[in-house]
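re: that chain from earlier
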Amino acid sequence: MQQLTVTPNDFDFSAAHAALQRYVDGDLLAGVSSAVLLGRDLVDLHCAGFADREQRIALRPDHLFRIFSNTKLITSCAALLLMEQGRFELDQPIDAFIPQLAKRRVLRPGATSIADTEAARSPITVRQLLSHSAGLSYGLLDPGTVIYKAYSERGVLDPGRTLAQMMDVLAELPLVFHPGTGWEYSVATDVVARLVEVSSGQRFDDFVRSHILDPLGMADTGFVVPQPQQHRLAAYYVGANLLDPLQPGLTRSQGMPFANDHLLPQPLLSGGGGLVSSLGDMVALLRALLPGGETLLKPETLAQMMRNQLPDGVNIRFAGLGEIRGKGYGLAGAVTLQPSAIDPPASTGEFQWGGIAGTHWWMSPRTRLSGLLMTQRQMAFWHPFAFDFKQQVYRATGHGR
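^ sequence. v structure.
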Protein backbone atom coordinates (compact mmCIF):
# COMPACT_ATOMS: atom_id res chain seq x y z
CA MET A 1 0.00 0.00 0.00
CA GLN A 2 1.35 3.41 -1.01
CA GLN A 3 2.26 5.83 1.77
CA LEU A 4 0.68 9.24 1.18
CA THR A 5 2.57 12.07 2.85
CA VAL A 6 1.40 15.64 2.37
CA THR A 7 4.18 18.16 1.75
CA PRO A 8 3.80 21.15 4.11
CA ASN A 9 2.35 24.13 2.23
CA ASP A 10 0.37 27.34 2.75
CA PHE A 11 -2.59 26.55 0.47
CA ASP A 12 -6.09 26.59 1.92
CA PHE A 13 -8.14 23.78 0.39
CA SER A 14 -11.06 24.14 2.81
CA ALA A 15 -13.40 25.39 0.05
CA ALA A 16 -12.53 22.34 -2.07
CA HIS A 17 -13.21 20.03 0.86
CA ALA A 18 -16.49 21.82 1.58
CA ALA A 19 -17.55 21.38 -2.05
CA LEU A 20 -17.13 17.62 -1.78
CA GLN A 21 -18.90 17.50 1.57
CA ARG A 22 -21.93 19.23 0.03
CA TYR A 23 -22.35 16.35 -2.43
CA VAL A 24 -22.13 13.83 0.42
CA ASP A 25 -24.57 15.80 2.59
CA GLY A 26 -26.87 16.25 -0.42
CA ASP A 27 -27.24 12.47 -0.88
CA LEU A 28 -25.43 12.59 -4.21
CA LEU A 29 -22.26 10.74 -3.18
CA ALA A 30 -21.80 8.20 -0.39
CA GLY A 31 -18.17 9.21 -0.04
CA VAL A 32 -15.34 10.70 -2.04
CA SER A 33 -11.58 10.93 -1.55
CA SER A 34 -9.24 13.38 -3.22
CA ALA A 35 -5.59 14.19 -3.74
CA VAL A 36 -3.90 17.28 -5.22
CA LEU A 37 -0.36 17.42 -6.57
CA LEU A 38 1.76 20.46 -7.36
CA GLY A 39 4.52 19.06 -9.48
CA ARG A 40 5.23 15.76 -7.78
CA ASP A 41 4.47 17.06 -4.29
CA LEU A 42 1.26 15.89 -2.66
CA VAL A 43 -0.21 19.14 -1.29
CA ASP A 44 -3.66 17.94 -0.23
CA LEU A 45 -5.31 14.68 0.81
CA HIS A 46 -8.93 14.45 1.91
CA CYS A 47 -11.71 11.92 2.49
CA ALA A 48 -15.39 12.74 2.96
CA GLY A 49 -18.30 10.45 3.72
CA PHE A 50 -18.41 6.68 3.67
CA ALA A 51 -16.93 3.72 1.84
CA ASP A 52 -19.96 1.76 3.05
CA ARG A 53 -22.85 3.99 4.04
CA GLU A 54 -25.03 1.21 5.41
CA GLN A 55 -22.27 -0.07 7.70
CA ARG A 56 -21.12 3.49 8.53
CA ILE A 57 -17.56 2.74 7.47
CA ALA A 58 -15.80 6.05 6.95
CA LEU A 59 -13.89 6.43 3.69
CA ARG A 60 -10.12 6.16 4.16
CA PRO A 61 -7.20 6.75 1.77
CA ASP A 62 -6.56 2.99 1.60
CA HIS A 63 -9.99 2.00 0.26
CA LEU A 64 -10.20 0.33 -3.14
CA PHE A 65 -12.30 1.51 -6.09
CA ARG A 66 -13.52 0.10 -9.38
CA ILE A 67 -11.71 2.60 -11.57
CA PHE A 68 -13.38 1.52 -14.84
CA SER A 69 -12.08 3.86 -17.58
CA ASN A 70 -9.15 5.07 -15.49
CA THR A 71 -7.85 1.69 -16.66
CA LYS A 72 -7.39 3.27 -20.10
CA LEU A 73 -4.50 5.40 -18.84
CA ILE A 74 -2.62 2.29 -17.70
CA THR A 75 -3.40 0.40 -20.92
CA SER A 76 -2.25 3.30 -23.06
CA CYS A 77 0.98 3.54 -21.07
CA ALA A 78 1.55 -0.19 -21.61
CA ALA A 79 1.18 0.23 -25.37
CA LEU A 80 3.42 3.28 -25.45
CA LEU A 81 6.11 1.39 -23.55
CA LEU A 82 6.06 -1.23 -26.31
CA MET A 83 6.14 1.48 -28.95
CA GLU A 84 9.27 2.88 -27.30
CA GLN A 85 10.78 -0.61 -27.54
CA GLY A 86 10.18 -0.56 -31.30
CA ARG A 87 7.49 -3.27 -31.29
CA PHE A 88 5.21 -1.12 -33.48
CA GLU A 89 4.69 2.45 -34.68
CA LEU A 90 1.77 4.71 -33.92
CA ASP A 91 0.70 5.01 -37.55
CA GLN A 92 1.07 1.30 -38.28
CA PRO A 93 -2.15 -0.51 -39.31
CA ILE A 94 -3.51 -2.65 -36.49
CA ASP A 95 -4.25 -5.57 -38.84
CA ALA A 96 -0.54 -6.37 -38.87
CA PHE A 97 -1.09 -7.61 -35.29
CA ILE A 98 -4.83 -8.28 -35.16
CA PRO A 99 -5.85 -9.61 -38.58
CA GLN A 100 -9.52 -9.80 -37.55
CA LEU A 101 -9.63 -6.01 -37.93
CA ALA A 102 -8.43 -5.95 -41.54
CA LYS A 103 -10.65 -4.84 -44.44
CA ARG A 104 -13.15 -2.98 -42.31
CA ARG A 105 -16.65 -2.05 -43.42
CA VAL A 106 -18.26 1.24 -42.35
CA LEU A 107 -21.93 2.02 -41.74
CA ARG A 108 -23.33 4.33 -44.39
CA PRO A 109 -24.73 7.65 -43.12
CA GLY A 110 -28.29 7.10 -41.94
CA ALA A 111 -28.00 3.31 -42.08
CA THR A 112 -30.95 1.47 -40.54
CA SER A 113 -29.39 -1.96 -40.88
CA ILE A 114 -26.05 -3.33 -39.72
CA ALA A 115 -25.60 -4.65 -43.27
CA ASP A 116 -25.84 -1.18 -44.89
CA THR A 117 -22.10 -0.57 -45.22
CA GLU A 118 -19.31 0.52 -47.50
CA ALA A 119 -15.62 -0.36 -47.57
CA ALA A 120 -13.38 1.61 -45.19
CA ARG A 121 -11.21 4.12 -47.02
CA SER A 122 -8.15 3.25 -44.89
CA PRO A 123 -7.05 0.73 -42.26
CA ILE A 124 -7.24 1.38 -38.52
CA THR A 125 -3.95 2.57 -37.02
CA VAL A 126 -2.59 2.26 -33.49
CA ARG A 127 -2.79 6.06 -33.07
CA GLN A 128 -6.48 6.00 -33.97
CA LEU A 129 -7.16 3.28 -31.41
CA LEU A 130 -5.40 5.22 -28.66
CA SER A 131 -7.32 8.40 -29.55
CA HIS A 132 -10.74 6.75 -30.11
CA SER A 133 -10.80 7.94 -33.70
CA ALA A 134 -10.80 4.44 -35.25
CA GLY A 135 -14.55 4.25 -35.84
CA LEU A 136 -15.26 1.57 -33.23
CA SER A 137 -18.16 1.92 -30.78
CA TYR A 138 -18.98 0.74 -27.24
CA GLY A 139 -22.57 -0.51 -27.12
CA LEU A 140 -23.00 1.37 -23.84
CA LEU A 141 -23.89 5.01 -24.35
CA ASP A 142 -26.12 5.24 -27.42
CA PRO A 143 -29.20 2.99 -26.91
CA GLY A 144 -31.55 2.85 -29.87
CA THR A 145 -28.84 3.04 -32.51
CA VAL A 146 -28.02 0.34 -35.02
CA ILE A 147 -24.51 -0.13 -33.66
CA TYR A 148 -25.66 -0.25 -30.01
CA LYS A 149 -28.07 -3.06 -30.83
CA ALA A 150 -25.41 -4.98 -32.74
CA TYR A 151 -22.77 -4.65 -29.99
CA SER A 152 -25.30 -5.66 -27.34
CA GLU A 153 -26.71 -8.64 -29.24
CA ARG A 154 -23.24 -10.01 -29.97
CA GLY A 155 -21.99 -9.44 -26.42
CA VAL A 156 -18.88 -7.48 -27.32
CA LEU A 157 -18.25 -6.71 -23.63
CA ASP A 158 -19.10 -10.21 -22.37
CA PRO A 159 -16.76 -10.79 -19.37
CA GLY A 160 -16.77 -14.49 -20.23
CA ARG A 161 -14.72 -13.88 -23.37
CA THR A 162 -10.99 -13.26 -23.61
CA LEU A 163 -9.49 -10.28 -25.41
CA ALA A 164 -8.65 -12.55 -28.34
CA GLN A 165 -12.26 -13.74 -28.52
CA MET A 166 -13.49 -10.13 -28.40
CA MET A 167 -11.47 -9.47 -31.56
CA ASP A 168 -13.31 -12.31 -33.27
CA VAL A 169 -16.63 -10.67 -32.40
CA LEU A 170 -15.47 -7.24 -33.59
CA ALA A 171 -14.42 -8.79 -36.90
CA GLU A 172 -18.11 -9.22 -37.76
CA LEU A 173 -19.14 -5.63 -36.95
CA PRO A 174 -18.81 -2.45 -39.04
CA LEU A 175 -17.26 0.83 -37.97
CA VAL A 176 -19.43 3.89 -37.34
CA PHE A 177 -17.21 6.21 -39.40
CA HIS A 178 -14.12 5.95 -41.59
CA PRO A 179 -10.93 5.66 -39.52
CA GLY A 180 -9.45 9.00 -38.55
CA THR A 181 -12.47 11.11 -39.51
CA GLY A 182 -14.35 11.40 -36.21
CA TRP A 183 -14.36 10.54 -32.51
CA GLU A 184 -16.42 8.01 -30.59
CA TYR A 185 -15.74 6.56 -27.17
CA SER A 186 -15.29 2.87 -27.77
CA VAL A 187 -13.76 -0.53 -27.11
CA ALA A 188 -10.63 0.74 -28.86
CA THR A 189 -8.62 0.53 -25.64
CA ASP A 190 -9.57 -3.14 -25.26
CA VAL A 191 -8.17 -3.62 -28.77
CA VAL A 192 -5.02 -1.86 -27.53
CA ALA A 193 -4.86 -4.35 -24.65
CA ARG A 194 -4.94 -7.18 -27.17
CA LEU A 195 -2.18 -5.41 -29.13
CA VAL A 196 -0.11 -5.42 -25.93
CA GLU A 197 -0.60 -9.18 -25.65
CA VAL A 198 0.29 -9.90 -29.27
CA SER A 199 3.31 -7.61 -29.45
CA SER A 200 4.74 -8.55 -26.04
CA GLY A 201 3.93 -12.27 -26.02
CA GLN A 202 2.48 -11.92 -22.50
CA ARG A 203 -1.04 -11.92 -21.10
CA PHE A 204 -2.22 -8.37 -20.68
CA ASP A 205 -2.37 -8.52 -16.89
CA ASP A 206 1.12 -10.04 -16.69
CA PHE A 207 2.61 -7.31 -18.87
CA VAL A 208 0.94 -4.54 -16.90
CA ARG A 209 2.04 -6.07 -13.60
CA SER A 210 5.69 -6.54 -14.62
CA HIS A 211 6.16 -3.27 -16.53
CA ILE A 212 3.96 -0.75 -14.68
CA LEU A 213 2.38 -1.89 -11.41
CA ASP A 214 5.37 -3.60 -9.80
CA PRO A 215 7.95 -0.97 -10.85
CA LEU A 216 5.72 1.81 -9.46
CA GLY A 217 4.80 -0.09 -6.29
CA MET A 218 1.10 -0.18 -7.24
CA ALA A 219 0.29 -3.24 -5.12
CA ASP A 220 -3.39 -2.31 -4.76
CA THR A 221 -4.10 -2.35 -8.50
CA GLY A 222 -5.34 -5.40 -10.38
CA PHE A 223 -8.24 -7.13 -12.07
CA VAL A 224 -9.15 -9.15 -8.97
CA VAL A 225 -9.12 -8.04 -5.33
CA PRO A 226 -7.47 -10.78 -3.21
CA GLN A 227 -9.85 -12.22 -0.64
CA PRO A 228 -7.92 -10.82 2.38
CA GLN A 229 -8.28 -7.31 0.90
CA GLN A 230 -11.91 -7.45 -0.20
CA HIS A 231 -13.07 -5.63 2.92
CA ARG A 232 -11.32 -2.54 1.51
CA LEU A 233 -13.47 -2.42 -1.65
CA ALA A 234 -15.83 0.55 -1.44
CA ALA A 235 -19.55 -0.08 -1.90
CA TYR A 236 -21.15 0.85 -5.22
CA TYR A 237 -24.16 3.17 -5.46
CA VAL A 238 -26.67 4.16 -8.13
CA GLY A 239 -28.22 7.62 -8.25
CA ALA A 240 -31.96 8.24 -8.12
CA ASN A 241 -32.06 9.32 -11.77
CA LEU A 242 -29.29 8.37 -14.18
CA LEU A 243 -30.32 11.22 -16.49
CA ASP A 244 -30.23 13.85 -13.72
CA PRO A 245 -26.92 13.76 -11.84
CA LEU A 246 -28.12 16.30 -9.27
CA GLN A 247 -31.29 14.48 -8.16
CA PRO A 248 -30.70 13.33 -4.55
CA GLY A 249 -30.93 9.68 -3.64
CA LEU A 250 -28.57 6.72 -3.67
CA THR A 251 -29.26 2.99 -3.79
CA ARG A 252 -26.60 0.45 -3.02
CA SER A 253 -26.01 -1.94 -5.90
CA GLN A 254 -24.57 -5.44 -5.78
CA GLY A 255 -22.70 -7.11 -8.62
CA MET A 256 -21.80 -4.06 -10.70
CA PRO A 257 -20.98 -4.33 -13.49
CA PHE A 258 -21.44 -8.11 -13.25
CA ALA A 259 -21.80 -10.78 -10.57
CA ASN A 260 -18.74 -11.15 -8.32
CA ASP A 261 -17.18 -8.14 -10.01
CA HIS A 262 -13.47 -8.03 -9.23
CA LEU A 263 -13.90 -10.71 -6.54
CA LEU A 264 -13.31 -13.69 -8.83
CA PRO A 265 -11.15 -13.92 -11.99
CA GLN A 266 -12.93 -13.31 -15.30
CA PRO A 267 -11.69 -14.30 -18.77
CA LEU A 268 -11.92 -10.72 -20.06
CA LEU A 269 -8.92 -8.63 -19.00
CA SER A 270 -10.53 -5.37 -20.04
CA GLY A 271 -7.97 -2.73 -20.92
CA GLY A 272 -10.81 -0.27 -21.22
CA GLY A 273 -12.31 -0.64 -17.76
CA GLY A 274 -11.34 -3.72 -15.78
CA LEU A 275 -9.04 -2.58 -12.98
CA VAL A 276 -9.48 -1.87 -9.28
CA SER A 277 -7.10 0.60 -7.66
CA SER A 278 -6.58 2.93 -4.72
CA LEU A 279 -5.99 6.63 -4.30
CA GLY A 280 -2.35 6.00 -3.40
CA ASP A 281 -1.68 3.82 -6.43
CA MET A 282 -3.21 6.40 -8.75
CA VAL A 283 -1.05 9.11 -7.17
CA ALA A 284 2.00 6.93 -7.88
CA LEU A 285 0.95 6.55 -11.52
CA LEU A 286 0.40 10.28 -12.01
CA ARG A 287 3.76 11.07 -10.43
CA ALA A 288 5.43 8.68 -12.86
CA LEU A 289 3.98 10.71 -15.76
CA LEU A 290 5.10 14.10 -14.41
CA PRO A 291 8.48 15.85 -14.77
CA GLY A 292 10.75 16.22 -11.77
CA GLY A 293 12.01 12.65 -11.51
CA GLU A 294 12.24 9.34 -13.33
CA THR A 295 9.25 8.88 -15.60
CA LEU A 296 7.48 5.76 -16.83
CA LEU A 297 7.69 6.95 -20.44
CA LYS A 298 10.17 9.12 -22.31
CA PRO A 299 9.51 12.89 -22.15
CA GLU A 300 8.80 13.03 -25.89
CA THR A 301 6.28 10.18 -25.54
CA LEU A 302 4.55 11.90 -22.64
CA ALA A 303 4.34 15.13 -24.61
CA GLN A 304 2.71 13.31 -27.50
CA MET A 305 0.34 11.44 -25.18
CA MET A 306 -0.94 14.74 -23.75
CA ARG A 307 -1.24 16.45 -27.17
CA ASN A 308 -4.51 16.53 -29.10
CA GLN A 309 -4.51 13.84 -31.80
CA LEU A 310 -7.85 14.64 -33.46
CA PRO A 311 -8.22 16.37 -36.84
CA ASP A 312 -8.96 20.10 -36.89
CA GLY A 313 -12.60 20.75 -36.12
CA VAL A 314 -13.19 17.38 -34.43
CA ASN A 315 -14.10 17.46 -30.73
CA ILE A 316 -15.08 14.64 -28.43
CA ARG A 317 -18.82 13.92 -28.26
CA PHE A 318 -21.19 11.69 -26.31
CA ALA A 319 -24.63 10.37 -27.16
CA GLY A 320 -27.26 12.56 -25.52
CA LEU A 321 -24.76 15.35 -24.85
CA GLY A 322 -23.56 16.05 -28.35
CA GLU A 323 -20.21 17.62 -29.15
CA ILE A 324 -18.09 18.82 -26.23
CA ARG A 325 -16.56 21.91 -27.79
CA GLY A 326 -13.04 22.78 -26.77
CA LYS A 327 -12.16 19.18 -25.85
CA GLY A 328 -9.82 17.15 -28.02
CA TYR A 329 -8.25 13.80 -27.20
CA GLY A 330 -4.65 12.68 -26.81
CA LEU A 331 -3.33 9.13 -26.60
CA ALA A 332 -4.92 8.36 -23.23
CA GLY A 333 -7.37 11.11 -22.27
CA ALA A 334 -9.09 14.34 -23.22
CA VAL A 335 -7.17 17.57 -23.83
CA THR A 336 -8.72 20.94 -22.99
CA LEU A 337 -8.13 23.13 -26.05
CA GLN A 338 -10.38 25.91 -24.79
CA PRO A 339 -11.94 25.99 -21.29
CA SER A 340 -15.73 25.86 -21.10
CA ALA A 341 -17.89 27.67 -18.58
CA ILE A 342 -17.45 24.84 -16.05
CA ASP A 343 -13.67 24.48 -16.55
CA PRO A 344 -11.13 26.54 -14.60
CA PRO A 345 -10.08 29.45 -16.86
CA ALA A 346 -6.41 28.43 -16.51
CA SER A 347 -7.02 24.84 -17.60
CA THR A 348 -5.99 25.19 -21.26
CA GLY A 349 -3.79 22.21 -22.12
CA GLU A 350 -5.12 20.11 -19.24
CA PHE A 351 -4.99 16.34 -19.81
CA GLN A 352 -7.75 14.40 -18.08
CA TRP A 353 -10.13 11.47 -18.00
CA GLY A 354 -12.05 9.29 -15.56
CA GLY A 355 -14.28 6.31 -14.99
CA ILE A 356 -18.02 5.87 -15.20
CA ALA A 357 -18.28 5.49 -11.40
CA GLY A 358 -16.66 8.86 -10.69
CA THR A 359 -12.93 8.19 -10.45
CA HIS A 360 -11.29 11.21 -12.11
CA TRP A 361 -7.74 12.36 -12.78
CA TRP A 362 -6.24 15.44 -14.39
CA MET A 363 -2.80 16.84 -15.14
CA SER A 364 -2.16 20.47 -16.10
CA PRO A 365 1.28 21.13 -17.63
CA ARG A 366 0.56 24.87 -17.61
CA THR A 367 -0.13 25.18 -13.86
CA ARG A 368 1.76 22.04 -12.72
CA LEU A 369 -1.44 20.99 -10.90
CA SER A 370 -2.71 17.43 -10.93
CA GLY A 371 -5.66 15.96 -9.11
CA LEU A 372 -7.52 12.77 -8.31
CA LEU A 373 -11.05 12.06 -7.18
CA MET A 374 -12.28 8.60 -6.17
CA THR A 375 -15.91 7.67 -5.58
CA GLN A 376 -18.34 4.88 -6.51
CA ARG A 377 -21.52 6.25 -8.07
CA GLN A 378 -22.92 4.88 -11.32
CA MET A 379 -22.83 7.38 -14.23
CA ALA A 380 -20.57 9.86 -12.42
CA PHE A 381 -18.07 10.51 -15.21
CA TRP A 382 -17.57 14.29 -15.45
CA HIS A 383 -20.24 14.67 -12.77
CA PRO A 384 -20.61 18.27 -11.46
CA PHE A 385 -18.81 17.35 -8.22
CA ALA A 386 -15.57 16.84 -10.15
CA PHE A 387 -15.71 20.24 -11.83
CA ASP A 388 -16.70 21.99 -8.59
CA PHE A 389 -13.72 20.46 -6.80
CA LYS A 390 -11.33 21.31 -9.62
CA GLN A 391 -12.48 24.94 -9.73
CA GLN A 392 -11.80 25.29 -6.01
CA VAL A 393 -8.36 23.66 -6.31
CA TYR A 394 -7.33 26.05 -9.07
CA ARG A 395 -8.52 28.99 -6.97
CA ALA A 396 -6.77 27.77 -3.82
CA THR A 397 -3.46 27.58 -5.68
CA GLY A 398 -3.79 31.02 -7.30
CA HIS A 399 -5.01 29.91 -10.72
CA GLY A 400 -8.70 30.78 -10.43
CA ARG A 401 -10.81 33.84 -10.93
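The chain has a mean pLDDT of 95.
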